[in-house]
Amino acid sequence: MKFLIIQFHQFGDVVLTTPIPRELKKYRKDAVITFLTFKRNEPMLRYNPYIDEIITIERDEGILQFIKLLLKIRSSRFDVVLDFMDTPRSMYCTMASGAKQKVGYQTSRRSFVYNMKIERSGIYAVHFKLKFLLPFIDNIKLEEFNDKPETFFSTKEEKKINEIFHQWAIKKSDFVITISPTHKRVTRRWPLEYFKEVAKYLADTYSAKIIFTCAPYEREYLSEISDLSENNYKGKFFVIPNLDLAEMITLFSKVTFHFGNDSLPHHLATSQNKPTFIVIGATGPGFCHPSEIHTYASKELHCQPCKKITCKFGNNILPCLKNFHFDEFKDKLDFFINNIVLQK
């Protein structure tokens, strides 16, 4: 049975879709799986052994290229389309497939396209996605699936990260923490000065070595960190060089623990089975894997989670983040490190 999985973006959502091909292959030995996504996501899926084919498009491709994509989809004769995107673009791809079984969300404004409609509910975001598989696997309950995201890398990426760690004099025995202070949305971005406070505390209290991560276009945001890594915390603070996504995955496989916002690095660390601790603003805990090695801190205001890109009180006020100080959850972080991270 030929399955087409559609998940164009966001980066984190692509990672959260990785349980789908794995669980399909586990329970459907006849499954042949194609994953349709934006080209920039391909490194996160490149080495995935559960995906038989990756089809990519550029986000801003013109109409001619999109028509070619639709013709390719049509000629592939898929039996099932799992449309996790719920956008006009994914709708056209679903329609072009000619698949007998088209699965989408019950709440979609384009629900007329789908003949199997799934309720968007669950504790963890992956649970929404795993419900898409229930019609194709007999006698299984949702809780029987493995809901942990999973990403892969090759020896090429591993060699590069090992070389970087060697340059930084990071040893296997070191307590290495990745900290990711960036996010494109201000309502999901805890202030940088608070991240600096946490980093100093972790370095001083646990003799940790801290790797700050960011996308290439976010490097200027971390300029203050670069100054610290060259002065007060030389040999303890590092800012990653430009890495592609497969190399980023490899980086997270080498660290002890991840701290940051609810963003792609958090999902990559989760996919490498590393303990994570995130600070939540506009989003809820539904993107934090429900297991003891993953947790979060929240101001827990009555307006959380608002899921908005702008704060109703003003983005300069942001009470769920700017008024949420490290002292309010320092004890929780210490407990997590001592009882979960260092015991793993």
The shape, in one word, is globular
> Given the helix and strand composition, which structural class is it?
alpha/beta
CATH class annotation of the largest domain:
Alpha Beta
Order of secondary-structure elements? EHHEHEHEHEEHHEHEHEHEHEEH
Write a compact overview of the structure shown:
The protein is α/β, with parallel strands linked by helices. The protein has helices spanning 11-16, 19-27, 42-45, 63-76, 88-97, 125-130, 155-167, 192-206, 223-230, 245-254, 264-271, 330-341, and strands at residues 2-6, 32-38, 53-57, 80-83, 101-105, 116-118, 176-180, 209-212, 237-239, 257-261, 276-280, 294-298.
Secondary structure blueprint with pairings:
Blueprint: E1 2-6, H1 11-16, H2 19-27, E2 32-38, H3 42-45, E3 53-57, H4 63-76, E4 80-83, H5 88-97, E5 101-105, E6 116-118, H6 125-130, H7 155-167, E7 176-180, H8 192-206, E8 209-212, H9 223-230, E9 237-239, H10 245-254, E10 257-261, H11 264-271, E11 276-280, E12 294-298, H12 330-341
Parallel strand pairs: 1-2, 1-4, 2-3, 4-5, 5-6, 7-8, 7-10, 8-9, 10-11, 11-12
Helix pairs in contact: 4-5, 7-10, 10-11
